[in-house]
């Protein structure tokens, strides 16, 4: 929206290289970042609500599609009711293949929109429509479109964590689990690339592929807080621990990783890697599935604060935390919070999403090409 756009600081930096590189920086105003508040619930209420939601889902032929960062209560319920818990690419795939009439997406706004775009005939509900993402908020469609218009000879690749309108402006949508493979494919075709919105993932992909990329300067407020120096110190205390990092983290953290991967790849690694201890640089919501996959392994949170800093999200996404059992039951009662995407935008966004689904068909979810 115009007010959001005005609230974001943009700086344009022209480098002295032969081809001018435009870096777009923004800082999301603090007031746009809500505190992370996890709704408390007692055992009795939990049991009662869970029972109620189970029958609501059945009556409405509805399924839950939840992200790994949501509260364990929601993940357990999704698993117990024929729903699904996964990363953003796999959530989209599951919804697409499901024959439910209603998908209740427990995650953030872009995940709900992607579900609607792929399933226009299904009803898509979300527990809280305020559940957004700093990457989406930091890449307004109007500014991004102008950026693309300035570089008509570039292929436009956007991360899944963007609005439907930004996806509509793109040629390709990618996720963390598919970004390196897609960019390698485009490099082989001799393409120059516009990448948005995550600067850290963009830098990582650029290094892995050698692609010529113009990178939008957005960031995930959760992963951006992981600290390279403090991670070094923690590793000294745990010399045998393997370091698992989501590529939305800063380069100083990625540089210390034994594995850089999507959420699915990180969970698989804990189960499969021959190590007892793991330092994990991603949202702490992921620990629920990690403990399920490898109950006897020791999981350590990567540091988000140190002598010089205090954390804001402290490794748990404020928007993911907005999803709760109470809100879920309420939307199933009222039918509120249905997701709609304007037809013209949906049609254009679908082709960038479909490109990725076709490209990744038959490829396992999770690991990035170039993983250590
Ligand atoms: P994944 O696609 O790896 O699940 O990442 C989504 C996300 O929002 C990470 O912060
Ligand atoms: Fe967005 Fe970061 Fe939250 Fe993922 S963890 S939804 S990238 S703000």
Please give the structural blueprint.
Elements: H1 2-7, E1 11-14, E2 22-25, H2 43-59, E3 62-67, H3 72-80, E4 84-86, H4 88-97, E5 102-106, H5 109-118, E6 123-125, H6 134-137, H7 141-149, E7 154-159, H8 164-169, E8 172-174, H9 179-188, E9 192-196, H10 199-209, E10 213-217, H11 228-237, E11 242-245, H12 251-254, E12 259-260, H13 263-272, E13 277-281, H14 287-293, E14 298-301, H15 325-334, H16 343-360
Parallel strand pairs: 2-10, 3-4, 3-5, 5-6, 7-8, 7-9, 9-10, 11-12, 11-13, 13-14
Antiparallel strand pairs: 1-2
Question: What's this entry about, in short?
Answer:
This protein has 372 residues and is an alpha/beta fold.
Quickly list its features.
4-stranded parallel beta sheet, 41% helix, 6-stranded mixed beta sheet, binds iron/sulfur cluster, globular, alpha/beta, 372 residues
SS class: alpha/beta
Order of helical and strand elements: HEEHEHEHEHEHHEHEHEHEHEHEHEHEHH
Small molecules (ligands, ions, cofactors) in the structure = 1,3-dihydroxyacetonephosphate, iron/sulfur cluster
Q: Spatial order of the strands in the main sheet?
A: 1-2-10-9-7-8
Rg, Å, rounded: 20 Å
* Shape label: globular
Tell me the major beta sheet. 6 strands, mixed
Give a count of the beta strands, DSSP E runs of length 2 or more: 14
Proportion of residues in extended strands: 15-25%
The count of helical stretches stands at: 16
Low-pLDDT runs: 1-23, 366-372
Average pLDDT figure: 90
How far apart the termini lie comes to 40 Å
Helical coverage, percent range: 40-55%
């Amino acid at each position: 929206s115009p007010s959001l756009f005005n609230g974001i600081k943009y700086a344009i930096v022209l480098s002295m290289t032969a081809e001018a590189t435009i870096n777009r920086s923004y800082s999301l105003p603090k007031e746009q970042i809500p505190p992370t508040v996890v709704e408390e619930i007692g055992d009795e209420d939990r049991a009662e609500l869970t029972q109620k939601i189970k029958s609501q889902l059945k009556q409405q032929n509805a399924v839950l599609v939840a992200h790994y960062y949501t509260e364990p209560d929601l993940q357990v319920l999704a698993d117990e009711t024929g729903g699904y818990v996964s990363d953003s690419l796999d959530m989209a795939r599951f919804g697409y293949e499901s024959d439910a009439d209603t998908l209740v997406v427990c995650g953030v706004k872009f995940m709900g929109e992607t579900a609607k775009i792929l399933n226009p005939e299904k009803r898509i509900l979300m527990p809280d429509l305020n559940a957004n993402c700093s990457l989406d908020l930091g890449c307004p469609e109007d500014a991004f479109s102008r950026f693309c218009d300035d570089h008509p000879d570039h292929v436009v690749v956007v991360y899944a964590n963007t609005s439907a309108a930004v996806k509509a402006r793109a040629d390709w949508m990618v996720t963390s689990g598919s970004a390196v493979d897609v960019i390698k494919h485009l490099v082989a075709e001799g393409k120059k690339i516009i990448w948005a919105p995550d600067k850290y993932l963009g830098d990582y992909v650029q290094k892995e592929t050698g692609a010529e990329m113009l990178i939008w300067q957005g960031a995930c407020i959760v992963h951006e807080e992981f600290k390279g120096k403090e991670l070094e110190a923690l590793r000294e205390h745990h010399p045998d621990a393997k370091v698992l990092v989501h590529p939305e983290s800063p380069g100083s953290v990625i540089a210390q990783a034994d594995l850089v991967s999507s959420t699915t790849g990180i969970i698989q690694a804990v189960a499969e890697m021959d190590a007892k201890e793991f330092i994990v640089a991603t949202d702490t919501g992921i620990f629920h599935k990690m403990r399920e996959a490898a109950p006897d392994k020791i999981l350590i949170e990567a540091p988000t604060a140190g002598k010089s800093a205090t954390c804001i999200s402290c490794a748990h996404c404020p928007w993911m935390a907005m999803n709760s059992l109470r809100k879920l039951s309420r939307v199933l009662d009222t039918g509120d919070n249905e997701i709609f995407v304007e037809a013209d935008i949906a049609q254009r966004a679908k082709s960038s999403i479909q490109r990725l689904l076709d490209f990744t068909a038959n490829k396992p979810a999770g690991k990035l090409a170039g993983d250590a």
